[in-house]
Fold this sequence. Notes:
Its cofactor is FAD. This protein is α/β, with parallel strands linked by helices and 544 residues long. The protein has helices spanning 18-29, 46-49, 69-72, 84-98, 187-196, 223-228, 233-240, 261-274, 278-281, 291-307, 312-318, 338-341, 389-392, 404-407, 441-462, 471-486, 516-528, and strands spanning 5-14, 34-37, 104-105, 110-116, 121-126, 131-139, 161-164, 179-183, 202-207, 214-215, 334-335, 347-351, 357-361, 364-367, 372-374, 377-380, 395-397, 426-428, 466-469, 534-537. Ligand NA7 binds next to helix 5.
Amino acid sequence: QSQSDFGELDALIVGGGFGGVYMLHLLRGLGISVKVFEAGSDLGGIWHWNCYPGARVDSNVPVYELSIEELWKDWTWSERFPGFAELRQYFQHVDSKLDVKKDIRFNTRVVSAHFDATTDRWNVKAEDGTTARPRHLILCVGFAAKEYVPPFKGLETFKGIAHHTAKWPQQGVDFDGKRVAVIGTGATGVQVIQELGPIVKHLTVLQRTPNFAIPMVQTKLDKEGQQKRKALYPTIYRRRLQTIAGYDMHPFPKNYFDVSAEERRLFFEEIWSRGGFHYIVSNYQDALMNEEANMGVYEFWRDRVRERLNDPAAQEILAPTEPPHPFGAKRPCLEQKYYEVYNQPNVELIDLEKNPIAEITPTGILTGDGVQHEVDIIVLATGFDSVTGGITQIDIRGVDGTTIKEKWEKGVYTYCGMTTANFPNMFFLYGPHAPTAFSNGPTCIEIQGDWVTACIKHMMDKGLTRIEATREAEEGWRKMVLHNSSLGLFHKAKSWYNGSNIPGKPVEQLNFVGGIPLYDTLCRDKAEKGYEGFVLSSVKPIDQ
Ligand code: NA7
């Protein structure tokens, strides 16, 4: 494809994952001109980029899919937690039903968007020179669009294969007979390790902080069983909106110390065996607020994990006696055979807290103790400039020419977790100050997509061309987001939840922790009050 000018559009969506296709579907319904620019070569967003070995969603189906009936009525999954390949097939199914691709320009990475206050339009440019002048700019870039590679000394000298997991080659990598190092044990590292441990010649895991991984309890799903339950799907999707994290589970309406130790034990066993995020989300309602309760939750987890590990040293590194941070304050992930991998003779675990990476050499990794770990492949599972990075990496300039990166340099300001002052007609989904990291993606995206669509419809009906959040409104939203978070234990962990995984990034809660129902209510309330906290106006004629 050659560069082209899309001219004036009513809306331009950036990103072709869940958010982008949902937005496209809704905006088409308004009968307006809308296109999607997607940096990747196909649909899927996160599932297009993250094709590393073992990549899989930690949310269960059918809550992890769009609630559009045309899509779910004849789609079935093979597993409760599908892998990236099946998720990609789902996106092809979405295209076969909704014909989304015809309005998506792939291989089109948006590099800049400047607001033109004389026309109330965005001047958008992509890397290949493609341009568009949409009224509305809708960023559906997700929360993990900008990967983070730590500045390891000597990384560029490595002669083997090294990739960040989010930039994994689409054609895959041959691991047969290879010595592999995995740096990082977040959700990604855990998936890579449990996948590669059993098949590679040698695996070196370099862990800085242990992940409090909980059993996924993966299940095979059959077609007939799913089809039979389809009558319940509208209710399942409606109930998603009534749960704290947008799934099919609720916190238990009792405090940890309200019940006896025996009762707690039975309750823990029960929620543990359900798999998924039950052990966090369905736990006692004060589990993430009360430090002593949290310690009890940790201890049960620790003891279950230790039972699965043969080596006492590995037990202490992976499931320490004292937790480095409260349970759940940093994102735990779901695992299948993760801990058993460490019982294998071909797997070596290095505790970077005691023995950090000194440098990467042409043939491997040199640790602080002077040992050179010879490897053929390095998997960089080192995470993302999460939540804000996908937005701030684009040169987005608002009314006064300030970039979004400059605006958020010392702290994030948003209103309703979808807009920000000085950047009119710009909306973002599944980004900062929304339930993002604490929610099931499709649930959060649908609430926001519905809200943005209603807002654009309202503007078109009234002949308005500009909507902009006020500074006071975003100050209030920010205060509320930070206050809600301060009631829990989240600030006690170094985590991508609060930006502390990226050197120099301000450390503050980036997500709305108040839960899906409250978020939904607050956003609806602003709209119902005539878009309270926003200034709406019509374009000024150019000669004024
Ligand atoms: P995460 O959860 O941010 O994990 C990144 C991992 O990389 C984590 O274990 C980090 O250790 C480690 N890391 C980062 N920098 C370094 C350096 N300099 N040295 C050693 N180790 C390092 O990213 P994921 O991709 O796993 O998951 C992101 C989310 O995507 C996930 O939660 C899902 O929601 C989907 P640390 O913990 O900081 O000590």
